[in-house]
Amino acid sequence: MFRRVLIANRGEIALRIIRACQELGIETVCVYSEADADAPYLRLADRAICIGPGPSKDSYLNIPRIIAAAEIADVDAIHPGYGFLSERADFAAICRDCKIEFIGPSPEAMGKLGDKVEAKRYAKAAKVPVFPGSEGAIEEEEEAVEVANEIGYPVIIKAAAGGGGRGMRVCHNEATLRTNIKKAQQEALAAFGNGAVFIEKFLERARHVEIQTLGDKHGHAVHLFERDCSMQRRHQKV
User: pTM, whole model, 2 decimals?
Assistant: First the structure.
């Protein structure tokens, strides 16, 4: 059991982690940006450390500052929540190098599945059916238009490193695709530190059903049955 955990996230996500840690008797350390200095959830943590100004790139995406805060607070582990650094294999590797437990997948696993473009390649290699779309990350606007014309509209732009609905845009024609491709790249870069996006065919009437699995480094694994995630707001499960 961990003694003290640093929460590398903010808002409701951080609050949920604080509550879970409190139930387990684990001390919590929150990091926060100057913009979140008066956030109520910080008062529930055992300690809070400011890691920089408001923009995410200077705070919640700033790996050296988060690691420094973890070392100052003498934590056993870092919980990334979701979004921000939660799917960054390099961050998980740095935590391991610093002898800090990363609460999440190993760097090796994230290197394969944390990037949705790479994950799709592994799925195809394993003969798992995937949606038609770009073979890799989209770099240029004209490349996006070419892919969309090939698979047909509507299409959806997705952030390769994304989650929580960030960096996603549904496009029903070429005009909206051209308008949104750069916006999606910029949003993905700001949210995840990685501006790579890809394109897939968008199904307008579909159910989103997940089977969630959880495993540990000792070889134990469980699944949490089906979860209907069809009710969404801004592409984020409600």
Answer: 0.76
